[in-house]
Amino acid sequence: MSDAKQVMDLRKMTGAGVMDAKKALTEANGDIEKAVSLLKERGAIKASKREGRETSEGVVVSYIHHTKKLGSLVEIQCETDFVARNEEFQTLANDIAMQVAAIDPLYLSPDQIPTNEFEKQREIFKAEMKDENKPDEMKEKIIEGKLQKWYKDVCLLQQPFFKDEDMSIEQMIQQFIAKTGENVTVARFTRYSM
To answer: 15 pLDDT exceeds 70?
Structure first.
């Protein structure tokens, strides 16, 4: 069972509704961490259901570092103007713009990496494994692991969020989608530095 304080704490941590928080706590037998995990899973499911919906509203946000030598522009899209004007959406957009300026991603997601660039990186990892005395299938798994790590370095959506490294940018967006019930996408971004 869950008490009101636990429900409120869980809501603060996840942004879930009262009934969702209460239900997750009940299913988790009062274990907050397990309830958070349940809510994250459900949020990802809700977000995936909204993935195909058109995003024709949104904002273009800029971030300029205090040194005035580094900045970024990011276009974040959503379904309605109502959400685009929402303070939480603005905060999400600003956080993503800061992420772009701070971490300098090259691509939005792995599917946007040009084939020749992907193959070049794969060959580099293959060459690193050449002298390893391991079975070929193990080498392939290691190469795949290295590619996954590389995606986190070069793809915005795969990168750990600089304010909370336990969450990727994609997970942060999915949480927002689950909370608002509206599809959100990063359309494009650019980074400037002197």
So the answer is: no
